[in-house]
């Protein structure tokens, strides 16, 4: 296995609306920042991969314009996943593992502001049986939260504590959309209150991956990917135990997450109840620092939020604040699909 | 570092038609996947991961349909990755799946691409207006017609060449039971007399809108040794992208396409593609793209591609058969079209292409492109494992 590390990470300030910015405008500063951090130029990158979703942009092939922002001439080796950028990072990692590339640029972006996210996400449900009923993303998350409360795995106070901790931590994150004291708020969809739910916002993120000595040359303390895996569950909510996340547990096992304890976990949990489920699935103790960035409850740019978890975990390793960190990304209703990566700070050979 | 050799051991397609009213999207993809598993002599439990591709979600009106398709494709509990690189996606998807095996991340991978165009309207899906960007209100044909015109002007090709390609591909399609358009009464004169859609592209020189899916099972050396039928081996694969629009872009022969082909030939140790390759499945959605891509992929010198077509070199019995399956001109479930090219190339070197088999084909190319002729994906497969 090749040693591959995240060597640079950048994200945009996440905001409720960015009417004055196109997707390329949103992305460009972030791309420039990761390239400047490493000193690499676009044409020196071995492989490029992005994650985004046409339905957010409201048009087909929306990622083609974002590619213009990369400056892909001379032509580049490039691909795109219609998924969160965390899966673009996975594809880039695989590419580096084949030996065909030593470096990769990964980026993701999402502008939620032009549409109604609750409506848009209903379109990713089973188109024949479920989508015609328009059950929105909050309603589905509320079903999951209620199942969790009914099972006695969490209570109201525990959910509020997660919201409070996330928003408090976000105060130290200059990119977060919501920071500081946020009350539990009004009831949105029973039992979810405003504080249990993520903000809606626009944002972008980028990372650079590099293998072996290239990574060491580009970064003083690379965040080595010790394992990365992702798993999907059945789509229909009726055949899943919504209080558990077996796909997260399976991905974590394949990523080697249970071999040794982690000190940090960046979890892509857009709802407080989902953090409870993920903590259990990942067997995280109380001593693990969860979402020091504030997590998705402080900024949840759809399609970039998962990649940001990987980037935040890596940045903590870059800064020396973590030795072994877990990063998680999710996709689909009620945690249907989950990715887990384990990142470590020390060099691979000593 | 030495990559694991990748073998194609299973291929499945649906019978492509204008509208499959008898199946859901899940039913359609499952049909192709089951056929690929049968061809490979494997079951769902032998599959380690699923890589799925399709063109824009607006074509069916389902956002990220892989979430809903996880059950139908036996992916529950497995990794499932969704690729989207516009029209080249079927090829890119196969390459991402191949990389999983080559990197030894997984041993046996199911890859599938589909489009069920009857669920929506592709012309509408491609024509949604967007702020800040120039409108593209004429669908794909309106975008590509000026580039065909530029090719004709640049090379002096007579305006009869496009109809020769269409007539050839539609005749080849008659030998392919999965092809969408089966028109035994088509004549060259009928192609030439068909209505002009986007000058110089005529109706019969245009791809159809199809419902269909294509699946492949890719595996490692050990998996290949257990396969019931001869595998196709991947000797080279590459993707290249360039921006949609920029000063200096050559829409007639994009640099990304040239670079992609050169990378594949380098990996496969091909120095004279015209002589060393036995069959080509190239992405020709409008007939004139055959002579254009013959040049872009290095099968003919600049300005010479149309001469190969006119001389019959690309016919089924020519010395460089292009699109023996009937190609995109006969079958176009957009998201699957690239994977069908890759799969048909593999069928040729496996000797399993049926009535459109090229005798003794040992090396074949599958090719796809997408976006504003900006995304390219290509692989070269052989009947023997790669050396080393």
Features:
heterodimer, A: 350 residues, alpha/beta, 10-stranded mixed β-sheet, two-stranded antiparallel sheet, 11 helices, 12 strands, 21% strand, B: 388 residues, 9-stranded mixed β-sheet, two-stranded antiparallel ribbon, 14 helices, 11 strands, 34% helix, globular
Explain the overall architecture:
The complex is a heterodimer of chains A (350) and B (388). Chain A is an alpha/beta fold. In chain A, 33% of the residues lie in helices and 21% in strands. Chain A is globular and about 55 Å long. By secondary structure, chain B is α/β, with parallel strands linked by helices. Chain B is built from 14 helices and 11 strands. In chain B, the strands form 2 sheets. In chain B, strands 3-2-4-7-1-8-11-10-9 form a 9-stranded mixed sheet. A two-stranded antiparallel ribbon of chain B has the order 5-6. The relative contact order of chain B is 0.20. The mean pLDDT of chain B is 95. At the A-B interface, helix 2, helix 3, strand 3, helix 4 and strand 8 of A face helix 2, strand 3, helix 3, strand 8 and helix 9 of B.
**What portion of residues of chain B belong to β-strands?**
15-25%
Q: How far apart are the termini of chain B? A: 12 Å
Give the helix level of chain B as a range of percent.
25-40%
Number of helices of chain A: 11
The coarse silhouette of chain B is globular
Low-confidence stretches of chain A: none
Span between N and C termini of chain A?
17 Å
The count of β-strands of chain B is 11
Mean pLDDT of chain B: 95
